[in-house]
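Worked Example 4.2. Consider the chain below.
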Amino acid sequence: MPGVRRLAGLILAVALLTPVPGCRLPPDRSAPVPPWPGGPTPSWQWQVSGQLDPTVDAQVYVLDGFRMSLEATRRLRAEGRRLVCHVEVGIYQESRPDAGRFPATLLGAPARLPGQPSGAPRGRWLDIRQWSALEPVLADRFRLCRGKGFVGVLPVGMDGYAHRSGFPLTFDDQLGFNRRVAELARRAHLAPGLAGDIDQVLALEPYFDFAVNEECVRRTECARLVPFTEAGKPVFHVEYQGSTAEFCATSVGYGLTSIRKDRDLGVRRDVCPP
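Applying the procedure from the previous section yields the following structure tokens:
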């Protein structure tokens, strides 16, 4: 019975294409991994405060997306630098020019911002469950980054569920939000990086093209970043205490690209040998 067989085949095809509850489709890879120069462990600089120093000998610069001018990013790109846009996604910062777009209902408890000196006004955690309110603001931020010539984005505030955020955020809330952020970055043709959120590295590695970690040596957490290095993706790592002689052997042994910086993330850095 040809008609019955055709009907059965159609039913099977529909079943195979219908998402199963609890399963996810593979991550969107439409934005390719940036061709980081120098292999899987390119040299890097993370500067979000002070006057930009474009002479720092680093292949990758992580810079504040709002503060960097188009002229500055053009100069760096002309010199062959790869630029990563540091921008908040899960944390509210009052000084940002688009801060008024965040409804008061999204604002939670105080949060620490990378690069903020001691005593500076703190940010506030955002209610990441309200994606419909956050998405248009974040999309515009990513478009700003892309328009200035950044090739990657470092979304800040990706682990609010692990802090006293002021909201009852769950592990799954954070996982879903971070995946959405990665997909939004790709739609802007930016390679997404995972900032922190070390407890979810294994689940999130397929969605992100690199990671940035703070103080995994001091916290004895570097081994948990191995999913990225095993996938051939760079892990840019920074320590704020001690000297390179004290932590480099550990971090480089895990395949991380490590530097030592002050917490204000200014120009100064000490580099681990490759």
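The radius of gyration is 20 Å. Residues 131-147 form the longest helix (17 residues). Compare this with Example 4.1 before moving on.
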